[in-house]
Design a protein that fits this description.
- This protein is of the alpha+beta class and 502 residues long.
- It is 38% helix and 25% strand.
- It folds into 5 domains: 100 residues, Rossmann fold, CATH 3.40.50.20; 151 residues, 2-Layer Sandwich (D-amino Acid Aminotransferase, Chain A, domain 1); 70 residues, ATP-grasp fold, A domain (Dna Ligase, domain 1), CATH 3.30.1490.20; 120 residues, D-amino Acid Aminotransferase, Chain A, domain 1 (2-Layer Sandwich), CATH 3.30.470; 46 residues.
- It has 17 helices and 24 strands.
- α13 packs across α16.
- The longest helix is centred in the C-terminal third of the chain and has 31 residues.
- The mean pLDDT is 93.
- Bound molecules: ligand MV4.
- The site of ligand MV4 has 17 residues, from β6, β8 and β13.
Length: 502
């Protein structure tokens, strides 16, 4: 039985994990860097240990200091969250060696799924569809050219040690083949210390659909249906939803079975994700496996009714899965918006700074997983994710309305956020109609960016006109209602005037 967990992470996910620990009567131990002395995850935990300077390479990636803190605290287990050390096989191995339970899969599963060529081979063997391409790393350039002619252009050259869009090259013309292989190789050796690359047929406008899986240490594996993650920008997910608007019940069952087969082929235990790309004809292909809890896990939790962190902890304790595949169902619809501290008007540049004011959205069907508070300074050192806004409703259109309401009610000042951009997506026809793929943001860029010109100017003009109106009424004291100034009146007046002037 696990009694104390060290969370080797920060921000919203550290708090997310601690919430489940508290419900399970498990003590939580936070770790923090210099920049995180005042972070919410430190306050939420039962104990906290300083692990080094602000750069993550010296703190959240510092294996010695994290293991040291776990031993000093007497933690039985470490939860890695996502990012940082969560998919580091050596760290998982080190935990085991120190007699600390790593709440995640075995080092073997992490390393074999981390190597994309090994993962591809394993999936082919398990009968899981993969994108047509090479099974072995490319060694000979002339052989590569003939292989590409066999597959047919366009193709993608991918680094075996890559993933999430790193070390990839799209090749459209025969003349570009060799230079693309060479540049992918040199990028891969620099980034990952491994220059192995392989070839896949390019799937033109794919959907990104992933399946959540859970597997125990006794060989039982289940899937918890899909998440549609196609709304992304430069390989950064922006919005996720479940069920996927693209999915049919038949396709869901078929892909779900393949996801379970994939987990079994990886000898997997813990929570994991099987990523697929799906083309317009509903052909689907295994892309990669994520061997960790994902940012977007809450939408699955809401629709399936499972606490994924609790399941991770139970699995780590060696317990058998109690959930049965045939008892699981998707109930209603959930959408997640990722709220980033970035400026959509300045090419999504990070916008760190002090939170002057925050009003979090609440109410029926709303979950808000965050970590910031008034007066908190968002550090420059880490991911600019502030929080995740998750809504649930019985149907997709109601979930969209609820997300609009929640985004409207969400106020943060002091920094710029992606909230207005997300609100604009909720008004975009292709999103409303569920008619989108991974090119959604670029395909709708004009509409999504028009918000800036209108939205921002509208706000400014509303404020200025409202102020003059207010002042005028103050001067001639006509703005008194029972002796009190009616604030909502001038705000409304300013808005109407601003709309008229535009
Ligand atoms: C692809 C592809 C098309 N064809 N592979 C991007 C991230 C990495 N996980 C794999 N990626 C892709 N691989 C083939 N053979 C298109 C993408 C891709 C993508 C995939 C999922 C989500 C968003 C994406 C955005 C651009 C490209």
């Amino acid at each position: 039985m696990i009694k104390k967990v060290l969370i080797a992470n920060r921000g919203e996910i550290a708090i997310r994990v601690m919430r489940s620990c508290r419900e399970m009567d498990i003590a939580s131990v936070a770790v923090y860097s210099e920049a995180d002395r005042n972070s919410m995850h430190v306050r939420y935990a039962d104990e906290a240990f300083f692990i080094g300077p602000s750069p993550s390479s010296e703190s959240y990636l510092n294996v010695e200091n994290i293991i040291g803190a776990a031993k000093q605290a007497g933690a039985d287990a470490i939860h890695p969250g996502y990012g940082f050390l969560s998919e580091n096989a050596k760290f998982a191995e080190r935990c085991e060696k120190e007699g600390i339970i790593f709440i995640g899969p075995s080092p073997f599963s992490i390393s074999s799924m981390g190597d994309k060529i090994t993962a591809r081979k394993r999936m082919i063997k398990a009968g899981v569809p993969v994108v047509p391409g090479t099974a072995e790393p490319i060694t000979d350039e002339t052989l590569a050219i003939s292989k590409i002619e066999e597959i047919g252009l366009p193709v993608m050259i991918k680094a075996s040690a890559g993933g999430g869009g790193k070390g990839m090259r799209l090749v459209k013309k025969k003349a570009d083949i060799l230079s693309s292989i060479r540049s992918a190789r040199s990028e891969a050796i620099t980034a990952f210390g491994d220059d192995a690359v392989y070839i896949e047929k390019y799937i033109e406008s794919p959907h990104h659909i992933e399946f959540q899986i859970l597997a125990d240490k006794h060989g039982n594996a289940i899937h918890l249906f899909e998440r549609e993650c196609s709304v992304q920008r430069r390989h950064q997910k922006v919005i996720e939803e479940t069920p996927s608007p693209l999915m049919t019940p038949e396709l869901r069952m078929e892909m779900g079975s393949h996801a379970v087969a994939a987990a079994k082929a990886a000898k997997y235990y813990g929570a994991g994700t099987i990523e697929f790309i799906v083309d317009d004809n509903l052909n689907y292909y295994f892309l990669e496996m994520n061997t960790r809890l994902q940012v977007e896990h809450p939408i699955t939790e809401r629709v399936v009714g499972v606490d994924l962190v609790k399941e991770q902890i139970r699995i780590a304790e060696g317990k058998k899965l109690e959930l049965k595949q045939e008892e699981l169902e998707q109930f209603g619809h959930a959408i997640e918006c990722r709220i980033y501290a970035e400026d959509p008007d300045k090419n999504f540049m990070p916008s760190p700074g002090v939170i002057k004011h925050i009003t979090e959205p609440l109410g029926l069907g709303v979950r808000h997983d965050g970590y910031v508070y008034e007066g908190y300074e968002i550090p420059i050192y880490y991911d600019p994710l502030i929080s995740k806004l998750i809504v649930w409703a019985k149907t997709r259109p109601e979930a969209i309305d609820r997300m609009k309401r929640a985004l409207w009610a969400y106020k943060i000042t002091g920094i710029k956020t992606s909230i207005p951009f997300l609100a604009r997506i909720m008004e975009t026809n292709d999103f409303i109609n569920g008619n989108y793929n991974t090119h959604f943001i670029e395909d709708n860029a004009d509409f999504l960016m028009k918000r800036q010109a209108c939205g921002k100017r509208c706000e400014d003009i509303a404020l200025i006109t409202a102020y003059f109106h207010y002042k005028e009424r103050l001067d001639n004291s006509s703005g008194k209602k029972n002796g009190v100034l009616d604030k909502s009146d001038w705000k409304d007046f300013g808005r109407k005037l601003a709309v008229k002037r535009l």
